[in-house]
Structure formats: C-alpha cells, structure tokens
Design brief:
With 144 residues, this protein is α/β, with parallel strands linked by helices. The protein has helices at residues 2-5, 8-15, 27-33, 45-50, 99-102, and strands spanning 21-25, 36-37, 54-57, 71-78, 82-86, 91-94, 109-112, 115-119, 125-132, 140-141.
Amino acid sequence: MDALFGTLSGLIENADIGGSTGYLAHPAVKSTLNRYRTNTGELVGVAGFLKGEASAWSTLIPDNGGANANLAHIFYGNWSDLLIGYWSSVDLLLNPFATEMADRGGAFLHAYLDADVSVRHPESFAFTDSFPTQQFAASTVVAA
C-alpha cells in the first residue's frame, strides 16, 4: 500500500494530523483503488485503503500531475483548518451584448464571487502528486 500512496503516508504519519480529517482526490483515484484485491480475492476498495477516513472526489483535482500523465493528486488534511473568505456578495451582471439570448427573449447573466482560500496551519495538510492511476486489471493484488 505504501508503494501506491508514495510519500503521502509518511507525510501524514510525521505530521500527526488530527481533527476533521479526510482525503480529496480526482475520481480516477477512486476507480484505481476499487480495482485492488487481497491475496484471497476480496475487494480492498476505497474504505480499505483509506481506513474509513472521509473522502471526497472532484474532477477539479488534477489527474495528470507529477512527472507523467498517469499520476494524480491526493490531498489529506484537517479540513477545519482550511479558511475560505468571501470579499463581497455574488455580483450578477446582465450582458447587454449577448444578442443570441436577447433575440429569443432571454438574458445572459454573469455571476462573480470574490473569494480567497488559505490554511490556518500548513502542517495540517499533506499532499502527493504521484499517485498512479493507470489502468490495472481488476484482479490486481496488493497486501492490505
């Protein structure tokens, strides 16, 4: 399993991260984790690899990072230490030049939200950009 998660498991162990912890990754990571089986043929799956930790999947997380196109990013951290600040409310602007909508009686709206993201304690997060997501056979065996 350490071969799959690379340096991430070491970073997590050394950081001693606590609190509202969980993983954030691209869905390709989830697909890859669901392909692994134990020596007895049982599916290890996401819960087996992540040890029951919370997980979230988003296509906004890169799945082509690292040194080649088959390496995905995985974030782990205490998400209560992630700070999101909004500078104003949502601004809605009507685009008067969008004739393709106006000709049919519609309106083209642009919505803007100014926000900033920061972390309270950088040591509350660990990251890897080297998780392999290449296609493995459904019977790939790992020691869980």
